[in-house]
Design a protein that fits this description.
- The structure is a single chain.
- It contains 11 helices and 12 strands.
- Strand 6, helix 6 and strand 7 form a beta-alpha-beta unit.
- It has one domain: Rossmann fold.
- The strands form 3 sheets. Strands 2-8-7-6-9-10-12-11 form an 8-stranded mixed β-sheet, with helices on both faces.
- Helix 9 runs parallel beside helix 10.
- The structure holds S-adenosylmethionine.
- The site of S-adenosylmethionine has 20 residues, from strand 5 and helix 5.
Amino acid sequence: KSKQSADTTADSSPGQGTDKHRDETPSKKKFCFKAAKEHNIPEDLNKILENKVIETVSDLYYMNMSVVEKTCLDGADGEGIVSKSVSSHSDLIPGVYEGGLKIWECTFDLIDYFSEADIQFTNKTVLDLGCGAGLLGIVALRGKAEKVHFQDYNSTVIDEITLPNAVANCINGGNRVGSKNNRKTSKPPAKRPRKAECSPDALAKCRFFSGEWSEVSQLLLSSKPFSKYDIILTSETIYNPDYYSALHDTLAQLLDKNGRVYLASKAYYFGVGGGIYLFEKFIEERNVFRTSIVKIIDKGLQRYIMEMAFKDSS
Ligand SMILES: C[S@@+](CC[C@H](N)C(=O)[O-])C[C@H]1O[C@@H](n2cnc3c(N)ncnc32)[C@H](O)[C@@H]1O
């Protein structure tokens, strides 16, 4: 299955309902931001993939979203984000659901960029910030990162999508460990993962967090020992200007002094108002990071890859 036709791919700006919700949600001060939580990896890896259908995109395994949606509607979604997203016809409900159930197209831009620019993950500590499906972190894991942490706003996304995706990519080329019961792969994976394949051991390098950025940042900083990240990856996370301050401070608090952020974004997010220029301006004003646009994808609405580093870094 090609990445363009992946049925979970959100290939445009937020859904129709976004404007409506934004109108009904006057200011970020009224949002009830989600507390941070670490999600432990269950011991029984088979259970994580139970009732899931595995598909492939860009040589990576991911959970079929229609099936996840169904199990969520049947009760697996403690946050109720699937029903809220369906009933509001929206991929983003500020402060409630932040879009992690879909794979957004800039994820693939960043994955392509890693190969083109030969970005090295070997022995690096990596954070996939606003991870959704977590494909960026999984690519880093395959690239022999020392550790990879995944963060999403929604705990349902981590439990039902990110964690299963990491497991599927780590265990034996996406095949279920042990029993074949309930195995519902829609078709055998078309290709085996290229390069270094993940192993169950790779899963031990992963940690998973949900919650709002400032909250997760506090949780990480208070965990001892905490070491800052060499690389922070983040795709389609700058759509809402209300979150820029929290995002900026999180990056500033969690990035190693000589670390790099690779950020992918569309030029502009209709209905929400954020975009690459506004974020660039925000970063400039804060005067903490230097930025450079390292790639422009000029198909329809322009998309960008930005590299960020501390102003005083080497
Ligand atoms: C549009 S989704 C993109 C998901 C994924 N990176 C991709 O490219 O497919 C935006 C992600 O940013 C995260 N996010 C957005 N605002 C956030 C906030 N204020 N605090 C924590 N996470 C946030 C959400 O978890 C969500 O998954």
